[in-house]
Design a protein that fits this description.
This is Phosphodiesterase. It comes from Thalassotalea euphylliae. The chain has three domains: 239 residues, Rhopdopsin 7-helix transmembrane proteins; 150 residues, 2-Layer Sandwich (Alpha-Beta Plaits), CATH 3.30.70.270; 251 residues, TIM Barrel (Alpha-Beta Barrel), CATH 3.20.20.450. Helix 3 runs antiparallel to helix 4, helix 6 runs antiparallel to helix 7 and helix 15 runs parallel beside helix 17. The longest helix is centred in the first third of the chain and has 47 residues. It is elongated. By secondary structure, the protein is α/β, with parallel strands linked by helices.
Length: 665
């Protein structure tokens, strides 16, 4: 009998060591994978290890009374740890099979219920010496029946679920066998518990359980290896997919577009068809990112890609080349299809994008070329379409087809771009200043800053000689910042040298005015040069305002809150909407020179100027007339109560050296 106790003790201790090692290995897997099911399997094996350690102590103390406190506590620990093992193991398997995480509160509730049930079964008849069979039923028969149901249920669930790895089929078969084992034991213990041979049945099932637990434990390890291989294959497939597709939109990337194009060209030639290569660039997309956030921008890019893929023309290629630039290639037979395709593309992009309760409107520019008319290689066709797109954007056109003369213009712009950037680095640009006369005080009210280029080869260039190229190259923002910096430096320099503050007006383009960084950038300049904000004036055109009225109003309010003046330049040549003029919190309106030129000879122009002055004063705005070139024009403007003037009659734009002569006097 003592030898039997020693054998059982050694058996359960060995099991505890084996399952403890398996739990440690699963913990190592969990540290590497971090999967939820691995964590619960690790906990389940820890619970199984606890149950086997408890059985080791029970086997060693088997001769003590089963109703003693020690035996009851040991039985409770064994039952609860085994119940928790089964529940956590099945939870982990469910998560592994479905790949769906289970909320922690549900796991705690299931494990807690299992723990409580085990102690309930243990404590019923625990200290009743006369209820041996009832105690055996509560501790053995009923739990075994419940375990049989659990394992058979999980076997059925595994059968209905697609196998994840080969180990899932091993576990499925094991569950069926293990479930039958519990049902058989439950049935035999109900009817045959009093038979002499039943003790041998118990001993047989004890060894059977040890083998079954080992199979389950090692199946977990096999599952982990399968999961590791699956993760490696998944990573490899994902890398291959990302190597061919844009990760954000799912469209082809540039390399795959270039790889797929030759085959499309061969097929098109074979069937006597042509290809149209459209390049689309989303207008003001940076503004969307800055205003609505990167998450909104990512959504819009994905939606654009989806719309292009699902379009009616069934494109052969939809790719994202970079940022907000897409390529759209489709096959056609007749040139009439191109105009319909262009209209369709613009309509697709212009359709509102609804995100987070907001309707966002966009437009695009399109440049396109044809195969085989314009080239016979993918790289060439993309380059030519990109050149056409550049011309469309620089001329503010919706669409542009490539033509041969674009190559010459492209080479010119390439050279000019390099020269302009180098000129900024070398400070070759110079500010000229046109004085503005206050008609009430007959004193200098301020100056307008106008840029000139001291070109090393061509001499002094006026704005009309280089600003079109600046606009075509989208360097407006860089030049605006350059001029703002020079203007603030000049204001500070004049005050330091002549103890005089002079207001400088600087023209701001639409691109820079819509940039969210404009206000903080100006703040930084004013702080750097210690310039009071009220001596800097920004001039914007009506078209800048109407591009995005609400955004423009918000920016103007921010600038005026800082103390910076904002005026409308060239008033009357743009939208001239009285509604927006009433809403805009601007300081000054500058009447365009086209109305001043013939004001003395043309009654219509005189009436218009008179109305503008009255309207502006009625709205609380000051008025400055541009292009005053004669004494007669000046006298008329005085009569009309115009506040200030500028023009060649007052002074042409002059260099800083000439301007400071006024300060010296």
């Amino acid at each position: 009998m003592n030898e039997q106790l020693v054998a059982n003790t050694f058996l359960y201790l060995t099991n505890a060591i084996v399952f403890g090692v398996l739990a440690f290995l699963l913990w190592q897997f969990y540290r590497g994978f971090g999967s939820q099911h691995v964590k619960y399997w690790q906990f389940s094996l820890q619970a199984l290890t606890t149950s086997q350690l408890t059985m080791t102590v029970k086997a060693f103390t088997a001769l003590s009374s089963p109703t003693s406190v020690v035996q009851v506590v040991l039985e409770g620990i064994y039952q609860s740890s085994y119940f928790v093992f089964v529940s956590l193991f099945l939870i982990g398997l469910y998560i592994a099979q479905t790949q769906k995480p289970l909320a922690r509160r549900y796991v705690v509730a299931i494990a807690g219920a299992s723990f409580a049930t085990a102690w309930l079964f243990t404590l019923v008849y625990a200290f009743a010496d006369g209820h041996v069979y009832d105690r055996f039923f509560m501790r053995e028969t009923l739990p075994e029946f419940l375990f049989g149901l659990a394992y058979m249920g999980m076997a059925f669930f595994s059968y209905r679920t697609a196998p994840v790895h080969v180990s899932s089929r091993i576990m499925q078969v094991s569950f069926v066998i293990y479930g039958l084992r519990f049902f058989v034991f439950s049935m035999l213990s109900t009817f045959m518990v009093a038979e002499v041979w039943f003790s041998q049945v118990i001993r047989f099932f004890a060894f059977f359980d040890i083998g079954s637990h080992a199979v389950i434990g090692f199946s977990m390890l096999i599952w982990m290896q399968g999961a590791e291989r699956s993760a490696a294959n998944s990573a490899k497939n994902k890398a291959q997919y990302l190597g061919r597709h844009d990760s954000l939109t799912g469209s082809l990337n540039r390399e795959q577009v270039l790889e797929k194009m030759p085959e499309l060209m061969r097929n098109a030639s074979k069937h006597n068809k042509q290809l149209s290569i459209f390049l689309l660039d989303i207008k003001r997309f940076k503004f969307i990112n800055d205003t609505y956030g990167l998450k909104t921008g990512d959504y819009i890019l994905g939606e654009i890609a989806r719309r292009l893929r699902d379009s009616l023309f069934q494109p052969q290629i939809v790719g994202r080349l970079s940022g907000d630039s897409f390529v759209y290639v489709f096959e056609f037979e007749h040139r009439q299809q191109i105009s319909r395709a262009l209209n369709h593309l613009h309509e697709l992009i212009a359709r509102p994008y609804q995100y987070d309760g907001q309707d966002i409107m966009l437009q695009c520019s399109v440049g396109y070329s044809f195969y085989p008319e314009h080239g016979d290689s993918a790289e060439t066709l993309l380059q030519l379409s990109n050149l056409a797109l550049f011309h469309a954007e620089s001329r503010n056109e919706a669409s542009k087809q490539y033509s041969d003369d674009m190559q010459v213009q492209g080479r010119h712009l390439l050279a000019v771009e390099k020269a302009i950037k180098l000129a900024m680095e070398r400070d070759e640009f110079e500010l000229y200043f046109q004085p503005q006369l206050n008609l009430l005080t007959n004193k200098l009210e301020g100056v307008e800053a106008l840029i000139r280029w001291n070109h090393p080869d061509d001499g002094l260039l006026t704005p009309n000689q280089f600003l079109p190229d600046v606009d075509a190259l989208a360097l407006n923002s860089a030049l605006d910042n350059y001029v703002l910096d020079k203007a603030c430096r000049a204001i500070a320099r004049w005050h330091q040298a002549y103890r005089r503050w002079v207001t400088v007006a600087v023209n701001i383009t639409a691109v820079e005015f819509q940039d969210p960084k404009l206000v903080p950038s100006i703040q930084a300049l004013l702080l750097r040069y210690d310039v009071p904000p009220n001596y800097l004036e920004l001039e914007i055109t009506e078209n800048v305002v109407m591009t995005d009225l609400q955004s423009a109003m918000d920016t103007i309010v921010e600038l005026q809150t800082m103390g910076i003046k904002v005026s409308i330049d060239d008033f009357g040549t743009g939208y001239s909407s009285l509604a927006y003029l009433r809403k805009l919190p601007i300081d000054k309106i500058k009447i365009d020179r086209s109305f001043i030129n013939e004001m003395a000879e043309n009654d219509s122009d005189l009436t218009i100027v008179k109305s503008m002055v009255r309207l502006s004063h009625g709205l609380g705005k000051r008025v400055l007339a541009e292009g005053v070139e004669t004494q007669t024009q000046l006298d008329i403007l005085r009569t009309l109560d115009c506040d200030a003037v500028q023009g060649y009659f007052i002074s042409k734009p002059i260099s800083e050296a000439d301007l400071v002569k006024y300060f010296k006097r």
